[in-house]
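Quick one from the shared queue. A colleague (R.T.) flagged glutathione transferase as missing a structural entry in our internal table.

Convert sequence to structure tokens.
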Amino acid sequence: MAEAEATPARPRLYSYWRSSCSHRVRIALNLKGVEYEYKAVNLLKGEQSDPEFVKLNPMKFVPALVDDDEVIGDSYAIALASIEILAFVVPIWPTT
Ligand SMILES: N[C@@H](CCC(=O)N[C@@H](CS)C(=O)NCC(=O)O)C(=O)O
């Protein structure tokens, strides 16, 4: 009997709906078809200072993308990583 294939863990995106930096990342990830788990960090409630979040991103900013034990804590870096590092199907930039 074939072993069940393990579902690869999706990256977790720590984000806040009013954050323009987070908008940028959500647009990039969605354009690239990257499935991710959305984790809301309510900046108005100060959740960026929660010790658990600070362990992930000591800069206390959203967005932060967590994939396994790697954390990218800057929206431009996440957008670039989504283009260059992860295996994507749809190119984000025009090719011609
Ligand atoms: N250069 C960073 C800036 C991130 C940033 O400024 N995030 C804001 C929301 S757009 C934030 O988390 N602010 C939390 C705070 O000011 O306490 C990026 O582009 O990701």
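Residues 17-84 form a domain with the Glutaredoxin fold (CATH 3.40.30.10).
The beta strands are 12-15, 37-40, 64-67, 70-72.
Added to the table.
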